[in-house]
Amino acid sequence: MEKIKITQDILIEDLVEKYPDSIQFLTKKGIVCFVCGEPAWGTLSELCSKKGIVNIDIVIGELEKFLNEINVNKINN
Predict the structure, then answer these.
(1) For residue 3, what pLDDT band results from cuts at 50, 70 and 90?
(2) What does pLDDT average to over the chain?
(3) Which of 1, 23, 26, 74 could pair with 31 in a Cys bridge, judged by C-beta atoms 3.0 to 4.6 Å apart?
(4) Number of domains in the chain
(5) What is the pLDDT of residue 33?
């Protein structure tokens, strides 16, 4: 199984389409990735900046870990 890799310049609409479980993670971080049922515009980096998150690498690392763990659980169940 290939590890999920996220970049800071991924478009939010691409992120939530490819990894819908990322919505749960981002919401817990207070990062709004949906507005009126549609993905927010912009990149992951832009949304983090709007939220005052300066170390995007930490968020990306946590998001990748979260998504990879979910992926493993889905395969094992």
Answers:
(1) confident
(2) 85
(3) 26
(4) 1
(5) 73
Query: With helix as H, strand as E and coil as C, how does the chain read?
Result: CCCCCCCCCCEHHHHHHHCCCHHHHHHHCCCCCEECCEECCCEHHHHHHHCCCCCHHHHHHHHHHHHHHHHHHHHHC
Q: Which residue do the tokens 């819908």 mark?
A: 20
Instruction: Tell me the CA end-to-end span of the chain in Å, nearest whole number.
Output: 15
23 assigned to some structural domain: yes
Which residue did the predictor score with more confidence, 23 or 72? 23
Range of the domain at 23: 12-76
* Residue 5 counted as domain residue: no
